[in-house]
Structure formats: structure tokens, C-alpha cells
## 1
Amino acid sequence: MRPFYVTTPIYYVNDKPHIGHAYSTVAADVLARYAKLRGRPTRFLTGTDEHGQKIEEKAKELGKDPQAFVDVMSPPFRDAFVELGCDFDDYIRTTEPRHEEKVQELWKILFAKGDIYLGDYEGWYSVADESFITETELKALDEVTRSKVVRVKEPSYFFKLSAYGDALLEFYEQNPTFVQPEGRFNEVKAFVKEGLRDLSVSRTSFTWGIPVPGDDAHVMFVWFDALTNYMSALGGPAKEGEAPLYDRFWPHGGSDDAQVVHIVGKDILRFHAVFWPAFLLAAGLQPPTQVFAHGWLTINGEKMSKRFGNFIPPGPLVEAFGADVVRYYLMREVGFGQDGDFAHKQVFARYHGELGNGLGNLLQRIVASILKNEFGGAVPAPTEIGDEERELVAVAEKSAAVAAHHLDLVAPHRALDAIFELVAAANRYVDRTAPWALAKAGDKERLATVCYHVLESLRWLSVMLAPFLPSKTADLRAQLGVSALTPEEAMDQWPKAGDFGGLPAGTLTAPAAPLFPRFDPKTEAEILEKLGANKPAEAAKPAKKEKKVEEKKDAPKAEAPKTDDKSEASAPIAFDDFVKVDLRVGLILEAEAVPKSDKLVRCQIDLGEEKPRQVLAGIRKHYDPEALVGKRVVVVANLAPRKMMGLESHGMILAASDTDHGLSVLGLEKEITPGTRVS
Ligand code: ME8
């Protein structure tokens, strides 16, 4: 089986771990656990990035020696990931000798080839982003980041990046899925096509870095150091036979090469998709298989930042909900690759809806009562199988195949959609076959078949959900009376067509407490309060416009459609339900700011009715009222009227927002008549 090596970014230790770091690491853990279940030799790496000016300055500010500082700051990352149930095989710290040695080795290879040369750097450096920036990039920065940018004029070693544009483009051509999602790959290609400048790869104005071999006046640029972690953790670069992990888990150009996936946030894509493969191509080494750039999380609709008081560490969430629920939520709520939101209230919604009512209930309905009362807790052998059973088995097989397909494509949210098709189908099966009625009627034969099919569906779910819910699925398996999953290589445990029926009759189940006990509303409110999730959104808002995430570290601009789309995660509705929402084209005739509100705009909208409608919209921050007049928008026309700031609002204007573009009302491309139904 093809070896699988998955990595996360290594995180800066100038601050504490937060939910954004948790997001990348949980995603990598899900992929690693899945690969192990498929029987693939798997390695999962995470760790911390500990050098550079930012960290040196922070240590100084606290009056600490940088090494002593990073020694204190790194373990909380490791602990946070362990608490989240992440089962990494290695945790690298860039201050470890095993790493420093290999970074110097890579440097020496490039230097010997003439791809690193000594020159002078004069320009801007963003300490916050640990990145050299151009005049144009400087202008685009927000005030806070710009205030931290320094002018640098110092001798510097350069990497001949400009010579590798064509090689990179050829590599991209040959590896069409090297960067995912595809839109981001297009941005990367466009950036390279524009032409590359040589990259400054050393600094002389501070000392907290890996020394440049043979020139102690220089320390390496922190990104040269950091990116090499993916290889140094395997003991590479190394000659064949010197480092078994490197031989096995890094690609070397052979047909049975390992698959290497770097999971990163979209903020650091350019480093991974341009600089890193360029260093490797120059050194005659094979680049990784894929860089997957996931989207950016906001918290309860706000950008996460210490300044806004919504910088959330994973610990309290794990304490409140349990690690599995946090993992599940992160993987389910946001389409991987898209921007999304972490909303505390939504965690409860998914917990109660999907996990409690969906999965937990399925187990509870059968194991805790019927099986115990009717079969002494032992799994009965199925008897005659009918269409209902065949239908359920077909759903199970499809669900396993589709979920595997999506996990192979690094789309965990889609995999969960597919897995929950089986949860829904099994619940429907219980509703339809009504085992209570069968028990009451004394139809033991049919009841045996029904119980068996539900239990076997649950056993399949205990495997397919294991990457997401490692601890809850272990509890589920214990209740089903089946052994724990063994994360051993060469054991393909993922269910496949033809496998349904693997649960041996006679297995003794062990009913226990519900997997997802309900939180009563009072406890729920207390938890939200404790987590600080009840703060009005306004309180957390930035006073000034914040910089875009893409600008964080000179990453390429992202592709246009970046939404906070959560539609993929919501439950399907019937068409009949959709048509209940009366959507109409509206023409804004008048618009004025509502006095004493910094959000509301009062609009008079022509909806093709006798009189214009008054609609209040919370869009003041994004639109000048005058600019709205004459716009055609989409209005929910049958929303019950409600009062805001003492004014009645008779409808709602549809809008969408994301972190980068702010809010946009939905418009129409043609001058469709006001009042026309939207469908
Ligand atoms: O950039 N939403 O480290 P870093 C989603 N040391 N993901 C987020 C996030 C958010 N709001 N905030 C952070 C560095 N992340 C370098 C990396 S790799 C060789 C060196 C995640 O501590 C996301 O994965 O600033 C992002 O890329 C990473 O944390 C940045 O972590």
C-alpha cells in the first residue's frame, strides 16, 4: 500500500494555541486515522516553529532567553493537540538539533550548486508575518501590521528563485493536483507566471535562527528553516539507506512513492506552493505530492484576534463538549478549503441534532431496550431479508464508498455528509420497521432481522466515524460488544461492498450511558456564558478595518469566490419547504440611515404591491444608504413583520458576507420587474 505522510504547519510559539491551529491539526489527524484504517503505512507530523525575529522580540519583551522562552511555549501546543485526540507520530521543534542539522545540510546542497549567493538586501520586512515585502504589498497592509514593518538594509544570502519559474510551472503542469483547492492553484500559477524575484534567505540584524554554514554573521530566514521541518522530521535530506523514514515517507520519484500532503491555512500557501518546491527542485529532491490550503475560521462571525477578545483556545471547548464533539464540529461545519465560522451555538445544534438525535438515538433505540428485553442483549441472527434490508445495505455500501472517495480527496465535510446518509437511512429503517410493534406482536423472527441490520449499520458507522470521533466510536464499539479498532498497518478495516453481515450473531452487547447525553437549556446557557459566547457581536468588532487574511504573509491573492458557505453542511429540505419562502425581486426606492443605529438602514422597497414596503436591513457598515437607491435586491417577502429600533420591518433583504469582502446584498443582472417571484 502506498505510504501516506500528512503534516500540519508548524506553529509559531510567540503565542498560545487557538482554534485555528486546532483546525489544521484535527484535519490532518482525521486524514491520518483514515489512512491507517485503510491499512496504509501512515505518518502524521505536527510541531512548532521556534526561530525568527518575532520570537526573539517576544522573548526579549518578557526579559527571557529565547531558548528558555520557546521551551515553555511549545508544550502547550502539543498538549492542546493531544487533548483534541490528535494521534501524531512525531512532534518537531525547529530548535532541535536533528532539525538544525538537516536544514544546514539542505543549505549546503543549494550553496554548492550555486543556487544560494551572497548579496545585499534593502527593503521592507514584516516581523508579524516573518516576510519580506514589496512597496506595493506594504501599501496594502492594515495600519497595525504596517506599524510593525521595518526597513532592512543588510548583507543577505539569496536563493535564485528567479531561475526556477519555468521548472515550477512544468512541475505544476505534471502535477495537476499539487495545490488544492483548484482555485488557489490558479492563483499560485498566476503568481509564478508574473516572474519571480530572488529570495532573501538570511538575516544579520538578529541572532535567533539557525546559523548559515560557514558564515556565522548570518542566521537563516525563518521560512527556509521552517519549511525544511517536513523533511528533517524524517531524517532527510539523506542518502538511500541512511534514514529509513525518509526513504519510506518522502517521495523520490519512483512509481510507489509515498503520498505527502501538507495541510496549511490559505495564509501561508505561497511559501508551501512556490518557495518549498523551488528549494527542493533546486536541490534535486522531489517536492511533496500536495499542498492543501484550507480556509479561514471566524468566531461567531468575527475575525479571531486577541484584540477583539475572541481568541479562543481549544482547551475550554474540549472541557465543555469533549474533544470528539469539537473535532466533529470543525470538520462538519465548514467545507474544507472554504472560509467558515465557528459559532458556539451551532456546536450545540449539531450536537443535539446530528450526534444525539441521529447517531446516539439509533444506538439507544435498539441496544438499550429492545435487544436487552427480547434477546438478552445478544446480537440475533437475521432471518429473512426483504427490500427494506436490501435498501439499507445499499445505502451503507454507497455511504462507505462515497465517504472514502471524499477522504481520499481531502474533503472531510463531504465524507461526513455521506456517512450521515447512513445514519439517516438507519433511523428511517427503524421508523419504518417499527421494532417496538414487532416486539409487542411477538414477531421475534422479523425483529431479529431488524435488530441485526441496525446493529450492523452501527458497526459500520463505528469504523467510518472513527477518524472524526475516535473516542465516541470506541464507546460505541464497546456497547456493540465488538473489539476496538486496531490502527495497525496492513489492516484494511474500512467497510466495503459485500462486508455487510460481519457482526457475528451471538455477540453480547454492553448497553451503557447514552453516547451524546442532552444538555438541558440551563446548562447550555451556562456553558455559552462560560465560553464567552454570549457577548453581543458588536463588542468583539474591530474598531478599524482589519487586514485581509491573504495579506498576512505574502501569500498569493485568493480566488474570487470565497464564501462562508455552510449550505453543504445543512440538512436537506423538501422542495415544498423551499417554496414556503416567498422570495421576490425588490427595487429600493428610498434608503436612509436609522438614527441612533450604526447598523440599520430603513429602505422603502417596491415589491410590485400597492404601496412600497418598509424593510430594515443591518447593512449600514457596508453600504451608504444613498448607494442603495435604485438597486434591485432579493427580498424575503413573507417574513413575519418585526420591530427594530421602534420601526416595523416587513421583509428581509438577502445578503452574503465573507471575511475578505465584507457584506454584499444579492443583486440581479437584468432589470427584472419588481415583485417577480425568485425561484
Ligand atoms: O504561519 N483559521 O505559523 P502560525 C484557520 N510558523 N486556520 C488558522 C487560523 C484561522 N483563523 N489561524 C491560524 C505560521 N490558523 C508558520 C508556519 S509551516 C512550515 C510554518 C492555522 O502560528 C492555519 O493552518 O501563524 C495557518 O496556516 C496556521 O495556523 C498559521 O500558524
## 2
Amino acid sequence: MKVHWQGERLSVVEGDITRFEGDAIVNAANRSLLGGGGVDGAIHRAAGPELLEACRALRARVWPDGLPVGQVAVTPGFRLAANHVIHTVGPVYARTEDRSAPLADCYRRALDVAAEQEFARLAFPAISTGVYGYPAEAAARIVSGVVRERLPDIPGLEVTLVFFSAKDAETFLTAATL
Ligand code: ADP
């Protein structure tokens, strides 16, 4: 993974999140939890079929109607280099409604899980900025705000923000306040 920016416990990199070695990667899932395209599809392919089974079990036991937007659910990482997957569902972007709060919830709740489970290394993709259409600059401001607010209270945690292209990483860095 190519590093575009490195802070004390936060880095911005370009690469494929399925290759991340650490305690957990966050998945930009959909409400069904049963797989999809984009980063979700890539994570399921790299983790193997056990991940889908674990997600089916979550649906059966915990979230029969699907995972609500802004919520998180944890599974093992199976064949991934990361030990866990924190699944979350970002909001679909809407010009007529401010959905920054649910997008912030995705990041905040994933960070809460990392704090509770005493994870040392966590990676996020750019949730909602693909098929869900959230403008990258607006997402960058939300994400950097949450991380700046929360990371100081989770001293053992290093966070990596993974972007799929150099352009996405640079767009983030231009819009974010780090
Ligand atoms: P959403 O439905 O939440 O918008 P997408 O998967 O469509 O989710 O896109 C979220 C972001 O993840 C996009 O910026 C996309 O470029 C990026 N992405 C897709 N595949 C990967 C991957 N393997 N690693 C990291 N980021 C990825």
C-alpha cells in the first residue's frame, strides 16, 4: 500500500483494503449483509465463503431485518490478512437530505468496537463514496472530523484510511482537516 500521508496514529494510503494486515478492516456493506459489489464484493472474495456464512448467522440471530444504516456488526476475517471484519452500512447520498450523521455513525461505531476490543490496527475504506454516491469531499470532512474527535481517546489504536486510487487519496487529503 502506498502511503500518501502519515500522522501520529493515522495514515492515508492507496491500495486494496483486502490486503491490510491488522486487527480489523471495515466493510462498506449493504443492509442485507449478504454481499454486494465494490469493496464488499472484494472483501467477500478474499475472505472466502465462510464470511457469507457468518453474515447469514448474524442475520438469523441478531439482525433479521438487515443491518440498519450507521450500525456495525463484527465477524472474523477468515482468509483475510485482517483478523476481523467490522461490517457497516453507509447512507445512500441524497441531495435533498443531510445524511452526514449516519455516515459519521459508521466511523464512530467502528472506532467504538476497536476501542472495546482493544484493537491496535484498523483500516477503513471510503464508505458510501462508491455506488452510494456520497461526494468524496463532503465524506472527507465528515471522516476527518470523527477521527480527530475520537482517536485521542483510543490511545492504543492506529487507523489507516484506504483509498482505491491515488486520486481518491489526494481528493481526501485536499478536503480533510487532519
Ligand atoms: P458504497 O456502496 O458504500 O458506496 P462501494 O464499495 O461502492 O461502497 O465504494 C466505497 C469505496 O470503496 C469507493 O471509493 C471504492 O473506490 C472503494 N473500493 C472498492 N474496492 C476497494 C478495495 N478493494 N479496497 C479499498 N477500497 C475499495
